[in-house]
Every structure is written in structure tokens, then in C-alpha cells.
From TrEMBL:
It comes from Mucilaginibacter mali. Keywords: ATP-binding, DNA damage, DNA recombination, DNA repair, DNA-binding, Helicase, Hydrolase, Isomerase, Nucleotide-binding. Plays a critical role in recombination and DNA repair. Helps process Holliday junction intermediates to mature products by catalyzing branch migration. Has replication fork regression activity, unwinds stalled or blocked replication forks to make a HJ that can be resolved. Has a DNA unwinding activity characteristic of a DNA helicase with 3'-5' polarity. It catalyses: Couples ATP hydrolysis with the unwinding of duplex DNA by translocating in the 3'-5' direction; ATP + H2O = ADP + phosphate + H(+). This is ATP-dependent DNA helicase RecG. Residues 286-448 form the Helicase ATP-binding domain. Its EC number is 5.6.2.4. Residues 457-629 form the Helicase C-terminal domain. Belongs to the helicase family. RecG subfamily. One of its GO terms (molecular function) is ATP binding. The gene is recG. The lineage of its organism: Bacteria, Pseudomonadati, Bacteroidota, Sphingobacteriia, Sphingobacteriales.
Length: 701
């Protein structure tokens, strides 16, 4: 481990025990590395001089050149202050000091020009600066200022300020640290990479991110440090993948047999899309190699991921293995079970559903059949991977809508068989490529980028409250055509009471507008018992009710092809991927479908962008990119638990090119030197030996 980086902060000259203590408490700075990595959050541009007329109170610290026209000490005791007037060719400004009055007063000479630096304020409608830094103007002074160009500004706290560790104080400490130890800052990339990629050295990068001469130098420093951050994540992910391949064998599915062929020839209800066929081929190739498959299947809502998963399972069955199919909710598990049962028929394959509401007797039977191998496919929620569920020979696992499953739960699966089962993870909606590369960087990725033929794009409309009557009209027309409708209300935990009230009000409005016996409503919300939800869902699925009024429990996966309208109330309160997922519940049949987004007239900027994006496009990949840009990677559903996204500098939305560069660089390295055994890669190999490297490695599975 590097000595410099690990040196406790107490040992930095100028720190001492008391300051060290507050640095630890307030900023989590324990050692030299932490100090170096307490990056400025902004810089002050001292290259540019502003005219008085240009400045306003919104601005950060700025500098001005102006001539002193008057000075005066006024007030008594507490209100005693020095007030000076300056002016340039555009306007007048007042400067004021409450402290150090005597000294400043001597320094100020009427008629002389000064370089004035401070935070613009205003007093009585006039431009003002309190306690600015001032320096007598001279060509030399100007030149000196021109050298000290970008000044770093650091986060500090009130507590730190008591120890004179405000931004300035922190800057001094950092400057000192770099001055003293510049040459000890260890390089962690091999020279050949630095040359090839034209990167700044690590020592220079740390120096210049704190004290850049200009914007170009700052950008180079940032590029180097961001690259490093992304590079080591990719190095670890891809090495993990390599290790897994070396360590675990995989079941070989080399037969295509009765189950697959029978299904393909006689039971498959439609022609597969080109994309579905391609992905099946990828999975087939992957499962024949004797290596455990870990594959992420990305596809837009309604692209037909389920059938691909099912056909992969049939391959497993043909090779003598069992399979399980996990869904995030009971409703979905049940639905997958019913769908598969529907297409397979009753006497083809033995399948079962295991959820929290499965009766004990049925449960016992399932357990027995799993152990003796007579049960082929088990559907359910995470209950499927509880320790007491034992399989005879689990060979294939499908995880639908992955983001609801924790990484730990995924890991449990691995212990289900001597040779771990192949795993196919499916996403609910597409996630941006850069995010996938980081979150699931050690998985292989398949993409279904084609919707089944004959789908009409969903028509999405954004309505305000005053258009509600029009909405009712559209609903009635669709019902008259024999179609069904979803009406969804938000359910966000922090305000559950309010949400339930919204739902209750909504139900009342809908019941009044759509009265019995002409119209029938199904109602599903989170507070209902699973069995009751199920009954309501089934009534809707069978077409016995016209309108399904629900909270977001129906968000993912629900498949009722006859439903043609999705109405989302308070749409501004939903996230983009959630809106897209909900919209994906319609447009599953051949007829034209609609999505109506109801919102308040008052919208936040982001809320407006979300709704506009929904109206503009049906493409889930495009939507996920916008989502990433709006919310940042840390807020995309399912990413919170992942340590890989603790990026300090890089931004997965803004730094896509750099991420791709890091990824490709790592791929190239492993292609040539999978063990990192070459002397030139020694330095990279060492990265795995160090315990503390800022990455929570265990969290990446
Ligand atoms: P998702 O990818 O969102 O999970 P599903 O697997 O639920 O999508 O499929 C959506 C609908 O499309 C289902 O009704 C399914 O039967 C149908 N479907 C899937 N593949 C095809 C295809 N190749 N041709 C026609 N319909 C298809
Ligand atoms: Mg699905």
C-alpha cells in the first residue's frame, strides 16, 4: 500500500491533533489521500475583470478594476464602518469594511485605481461589496493576478471555520501537501497506457485539479482522474468475469430435444421476431460452452422477453435440468405462470407456482417434486431461493425485472447447485448503455431491439385537469369498442395517507362517471390482501370489468392485450422509467392504444421534461437516456444498493466517451494478458492486492 496516501492527516504540517479531529469529523478526512481527494467544488476565475455594470448579486466572487473616489469612516461602536466609493467607466460601487478599518483606511488613496475582488452585493439598490480583497493597481499586480487564474473553492463547515479551515484554510493545507509530497504521489497506471491515451500523470492531475493554471489544464486533470476512476471499476468487473469463467464450470446444454422442438413446431403462438431469434441463438451458444452463463436481457416494454426466457428454459429441460422463473411481485409471478401454462398446455410439462400465499399442502408437494426432479419449472417471487427450497438439478434461472432483486439474493442462487445454474436477468425497461456497463459490467448483454410486427405505436397525450371531460369521452368510446382501461394513481411511501386519499377520491369520481350496471370497475391497491388483488386482477384479465383503477402495483409486466388506454393521474409525480413501464401495459394488441398523462398545470422543469419526453417518444432506450440525464445514475431505480456507482468525479451521463474508452482499454488488456502477468501490467495486478482502494468490491456480483 502506498505510504503517502495512508499517512494519517495528523502528520500533515500545519494540522495538529485538534484540526485533525475536526477534519475527520466534519469531512471524513483521515489521511493524505482523503485530503487530496477533497476536490474543489468550484473555481473562481481571476483571469477576467468585470465592469461594474456587468456584476450582479447572483455572481460568485468576481474582480473589478476601479478608481477610488471617496472614503469615510462612519457610525459609532457596533455600526462603525469604513465606506468607500469606487467607479469605472460603466458605473459606481460602494465598498464597506466593518473590521480592520484603520489599516484599510490607510491603504486607500482617493484618486488611485485598485484591483478589487469580492462577492457582489447590494445596499439601498446600489452595487456594493463587503470586505473585498484590494490591491493597488499596477501593471505588475495585474500580471500577477493573471497568473493565479483559477482559484479552488472547497466545501467547509461552520465547525471547520472555527479552526480557520474555511475554503482558504483548506486550500493552504492542500497546497502545502502537494508542494511537499508531489513526487511521492504514486502513479497507478502503466506508462504505456499513459502514453497511448495521452493522459496526465497522476501527480500532475492531483496538482492541477486543485490548482489549475487555466481551464485547459483543469480539463486534462479531470480527464485523467475520471478515466482512472472508470478504468479500475471496469478492470475489476471484467476480471471478476474472467475469474468466474475459470472457477465455475457451467452445465452444457448441447441437445435440442423434444420439449423445445415440440413447443417450437406446435405451440408457439406467433412467429419470433428477428431480434428474439438472435438472442435465443446467443443464449444457446452461451449454454453450450461449459461455462456458466450470466446474461442480461435488455428489451423495451412489450418486446417479448418472456417467450425468449421460456424457450431457453425448454433447452434446459431438454438437457435434463430443472428451471425456475422469478418475478418481483406475486401478481407477476402468477401472471407468468398463467401465461406459460396457457401456451404449454396442461400435460406437456410439470410446472408450479410458489408464492407467499401458496397453501401448506401444495407447498409440501412442490418441495417433494422439486427434490425428486418431477417438477420441471417453478414460478414465484424471491421465495424460490429460500434455503429450504431444494432442487434436484437446477440448471437455469430467469430473473424478471431484475431491479427488484438485491444482489445478495442473486448470489444465493449460486449455491443452489454444485455447478451453478445459468442465469438470465431481464430488465423491466431498458437502461442506458453506460449504466449497464457499470452496473452489470460483468454480465453479457443481449438486446431485443425490435417489437413484434403489427404493433401500432401508442399515442401519448398530456392533459390538464380542464381536459378531464375529454378524457372521459375517450374512455367511453374505447369501452364502447369493447376495450379495457387502466387508471393509475401514484403511491409514494412518504405520503401514503395522501395517496390513499387520492385513490379513494379517484375511485369515487370514476364510479360516478362510470356507474353500474353499464360499467364495471376493478380496484387494486397495495393495502389489499394478495388473494383479493388476485381476484380483482383476474376479473380484469377475463374481461369482466372495464376499468382497472389501481396504484402502481400493476406497474411491471401485467399483460392484458385487450386493454387499450392507460390513464396516469398526477403523472408529474412519476419517474420516467415508471411512466414508460406503465404505458407499456397497453399497446399489446393489434388496435390503436392511448396513454393519457393527467397533470397539474404547475410543473417543475424536470416534470415538464418528463412529460414532454413521454409524448415525444415510445422508445425505451431513448427515454432511459433522458432519465439518466435528469436524475443522475444514483437515482435510477435499482442502483442505490450498488457500490459501483459511488463515483466521485466521473458522471455516467456526461462522460460516456471516457467510459467507453476505459471499457475498451480494459478489454484489450485482458485479451492480451488475462492474468495481468506481464511486467508492464504489474502495477495493475497490484491494484487487486490492496485492500482499500475506494471500491466496495464485494457488492459487485
Ligand atoms: P416484455 O418484454 O415487456 O416482458 P412480453 O414478453 O410480456 O414483453 O410480451 C409482450 C406481448 O407480446 C405478449 O403478449 C407476448 O405474447 C407478445 N409477443 C411476444 N413475442 C411476440 C412475437 N414475436 N409476435 C407477436 N407477439 C409477440
Ligand atoms: Mg415482461
Amino acid at each position: 500500500m502506498n505510504q503517502l496516501f495512508e499517512t494519517p492527516i495528523e502528520y500533515l504540517k500545519g494540522t495538529g491533533p485538534a484540526r485533525a479531529e475536526v477534519l475527520k469529523k466534519e469531512l471524513g478526512i483521515y489521511n493524505f489521500e482523503d485530503m487530496l481527494r477533497h476536490f474543489p467544488f468550484k473555481y473562481i476565475d481571476r483571469t477576467r475583470f468585470y465592469k461594474i455594470r456587468e456584476i450582479n448579486i447572483e455572481m460568485p466572487l468576481v474582480q473589478v478594476i476601479a478608481r477610488l473616489t471617496s472614503k469615510e469612516i462612519i457610525g459609532e461602536k457596533h455600526t462603525r464602518r469604513l465606506v468607500a466609493q469606487v467607479q469605472d467607466d460603466t458605473g459606481v460601487m460602494e465598498l464597506v469594511w466593518f473590521q480592520g478599518i484603520k489599516w484599510v483606511e490607510k491603504y486607500l488613496l482617493v484618486g488611485k485605481a485598485y484591483i478589487i475582488f469580492g462577492k457582489p452585493g447590494s445596499f439601498n439598490g446600489k452595487a456594493q461589496m463587503a470586505h473585498p480583497e484590494i490591491e493597488l493597481y499596477s501593471p505588475e499586480a495585474l500580471k500577477r493576478k493573471g497568473n493565479a487564474t483559477l482559484q479552488p473553492v472547497y466545501n467547509s463547515t461552520e465547525k471547520l471555520k472555527q479552526y480557520t479551515l474555511d475554503s482558504k484554510g483548506l486550500q493552504k493545507l492542500t497546497a502545502f501537501l502537494i508542494e511537499q509530497h508531489y513526487k511521492d504521489i504514486p502513479e497507478n497506471l502503466p506508462p504505456y497506457l499513459i502514453n497511448k491515451l495521452k493522459l496526465m500523470s497522476r501527480a500532475d492531475a492531483y496538482r492541477h485539479i486543485h490548482f489549475p493554471a487555466d481551464a485547459a489544464e483543469l480539463n486534462e486533470a479531470l480527464r485523467r482522474l475520471k478515466f482512472e476512476e472508470l478504468f479500475f471499476i471496469q478492470l475489476k468487473l471484467l476480471r471478476n468475469k474472467l475469474l468466474r469463467v475459470q472457477k465455475f464450470r457451467g452445465n452444457v446444454f448441447d441437445k435440442v430435444g423434444h420439449y423445445f422442438n415440440e413447443f417450437y413446431q406446435h405451440k408457439l403462438p406467433f412467429e419470433l421476431t428477428g431480434a428474439q431469434k438472435r438472442v435465443l441463438k446467443e443464449i444457446r451458444q452461451d449454454t453450450q460452452r461449459g461455462v456458466q452463463m450470466n446474461r442480461l436481457l435488455q428489451g423495451d416494454v412489450g418486446s417479448g422477453k418472456t417467450i425468449v426466457a421460456l424457450m431457453s428454459i425448454l433447452l434446459a429441460l431438454d438437457n435434463g435440468f430443472q428451471a425456475c422463473f422469478m418475478a418481483p411481485t406475486e401478481i407477476l409471478a402468477n401472471q407468468h405462470f398463467q401465461t406459460v401454462k396457457g401456451v404449454l398446455g396442461d400435460d406437456f410439462i410439470n410446472i408450479a407456482l410458489l408464492t407467499g400465499s401458496t397453501k401448506q399442502k401444495e407447498r409440501t408437494k412442490i418441495h417433494r417434486q422439486l427434490e425428486d426432479g418431477s417438477l420441471h419449472i417453478l414460478f414465484g417471487t424471491h421465495a424460490l431461493i429460500e434455503d429450504k427450497v431444494q432442487y434436484k438439478n437446477l440448471g437455469f434461472v430467469v430473473i424478471d425485472e431484475q431491479h427488484r432483486f438485491g444482489v445478495e439474493q442473486r448470489a444465493k442462487l449460486w449455491r443452489k447447485n454444485v455447478v451453478p445454474p445459468h442465469v438470465l436477468v431481464m430488465t423491466a425497461t431498458p437502461i442506458p448503455r453506460t449504466l449497464a456497463m457499470t452496473l452489470y459490467g460483468d454480465l453479457d448483454v443481449s438486446v431485443i431491439d425490435e417489437l413484434p410486427a403489427g404493433r401500432k405505436p401508442i399515442d401519448t397525450l398530456h392533459f390538464y385537469e380542464n381536459q378531464r371531460l375529454r378524457m372521459f369521452g375517450m374512455m367511453k368510446e374505447e369501452i364502447a369498442k369493447g376495450r379495457q382501461i387502466y387508471v393509475v394513481y401514484p403511491l409514494i411511501q412518504e405520503s401514503e395517507k395522501l395517496d390513499l386519499k387520492n385513490l379513494a377520491d379517484g375511485i369515487e369520481v370514476m364510479s360516478r362517471e362510470f356507474p353500474l350496471p353499464q360499467y364495471r370497475l376493478s380496484i387494486v391497491h397495495g393495502k389489499m390482501k394478495a388473494a383479493d388483488k388476485d381476484i380483482e386482477m383476474q376479473r380484469f384479465v377475463r374481461g369482466e370489468t372495464h376499468i382497472m383503477v389501481a396504484t402502481t402495483v400493476i406497474e411491471v409486466g401485467v399483460n392484458v392485450p385487450n386493454a387499450s388506454v392507460m390513464i396516469i393521474e398526477n403523472a408529474e409525480r412519476f419517474g420516467l422509467s415508471q411512466l414508460h413501464q406503465l404505458r407499456g401495459r397497453v399497446g399489446r394488441g393489434a388496435e390503436q392504444s392511448y396513454c393519457i398523462l393527467m397533470s397539474d398545470v404547475k410543473l417543475s422543469r424536470d416534470g415538464r421534461i418528463r412529460l414532454e419526453t413521454m409524448v415525444r417518444t415510445n422508445n425505451g432506450f431513448e427515454i432511459s437516456e433522458t432519465d439518466l440525464q435528469l436524475r443522475g445514475p444514483g437515482n435510477i431505480e435499482g442502483t442505490q444498493q450498488s457500490g459501483v456507482l459511488d463515483l466521485k468525479l466521473a458522471d455516467l451521463a456526461a462522460d460516456q466517451q471516457l467510459l467507453l474508452l476505459a471499457r475498451h482499454t480494459v478489454e484489450e488488456i485482458f485479451e492480451k494478458d488475462p492474468q495481468l502477468a506481464h511486467p508492464e501490467n504489474h502495477i495493475l495486478h497490484q491494484a487487486f492486492m490492496s485492500k482499500k482502494d475506494g471500491l466496495t468490491w464485494d457488492k459487485i456480483s
